[in-house]
Amino acid sequence: MAYKIITSQCTVCGACEFECPNAAISMKRGTYVIDAVKCTECEGHFDKPQCVAVCPVDNTCVPA
Predict the structure, then answer these.
(1) Cross-strand partners of 4
(2) Helix (H) or strand (E) segment spanning residue 34
(3) pLDDT < 70 regions, the chain
(4) Quick one: three-class SS letters along 18-51?
(5) Can you tell me whether residue 53 is helix, strand or coil?
């Protein structure tokens, strides 16, 4: 399963884009999105998905 960003809650801070070890997060139409094909929930890299760990707004990065 991949993660997704709730666009209505995203502050477009950019913290998640650079923390993603799979380069699955990118800017699209003024907000960040997660490419479900590239997202591995950081398995093999970190204990917790980094988008969740660095996002300043709770429940913005959630399982898809």
Answers:
(1) 62
(2) strand 31-34
(3) none
(4) HHCCCCCEEEECCEEEECCCCCCCCCCCCCCCHH
(5) helix
Q: How many domains does the chain have?
A: 1
In sequence order, the β-bridge partners of residue 3 are 63
Output the pLDDT for position 1.
84
Tokens of 8: 């209505």
Assign residue 25 the CATH number of its domain: 3.30.70.20
Tokens standing for 40? 């591995």
Q: What is the pTM of this model?
A: 0.91
Q: 3-state class of 54 per DSSP?
A: helix
Give me the amino acid identity at 40.
Answer: T
46 residue type, one letter:
F
Q: Which domain covers residue 51, as residue numbers?
A: 3-63
Of 23, 3, 19, 12, nearest in space to 57 by CA: 12
The amino acid at residue 19 is E
